[in-house]
Amino acid sequence: MDQVFLDPTDHVDHGQKSFAPRLDTLVGTTIGLLDINKSKGVYFLDRVEEVLKEQYGVKEVLRRKKVSAGKLASPQLRQELREKCDAVIEALSD
Questions:
Q1: 79-82 contacts: CB < 8 A, separation 24 or more?
Q2: Do residues 47 and 33 touch, judged by C-beta distance below 8 A?
Q3: CA within 20 to 30 Å of 7's CA: 36, 58, 74, 91, which one?
Q4: Biggest alpha carbon distance in the chain?
Q5: What is the DSSP string of 48-70?
Q6: In what order do the strands lie in the sheet with 60-65?
Q7: In angstroms, what CA-CA distances link 24 with 8, 49, 55, 74?
Q8: Is the pLDDT of residue 55 over 80?
């Protein structure tokens, strides 16, 4: 099934994108939570972190924040998340 992804940043990429492979389990994993820097996002992500640890057995949550909601995460930040996390959730809230 073809999927269409819409990118809300100011970056234009016309290439094909696909879903990352799913993890078999979240138990014992390290999950990255990327705050895209919208107001009150920290409160939403606090709850996501709590649920991931208490209900899904996530071992560690790595929290990071983008400089701006309209900009891509820096290459250094993306590299850090790739190296340290089993999966990353990019989230926003207003």
A1: 81/32, 81/34
A2: no
A3: 58
A4: 39
A5: HHHHHHHHH---EEEEEE-S-TT
A6: 60-65, 30-35, 87-91
A7: 29, 19, 15, 29
A8: yes
Task: Name the residue with tokens 């959730």.
Answer: 89
What's the Cα-to-Cα distance from 23 to each of 62, 75, 76, 88, rounded to whole Å? Answer: 17, 24, 24, 11
Note the pLDDT tens digit of each residue in 12-26. 667 777 888 899 999
- What's the CA gap between 40 and 78, in Å, rounded? 22
Residue ranges of alpha helices (H) inside the chain are 41-56, 75-84
31-51 confidence digits (pLDDT tens): 999 999 888 888 999 999 999
CA atoms within 13 A on the CB side of 58: 22
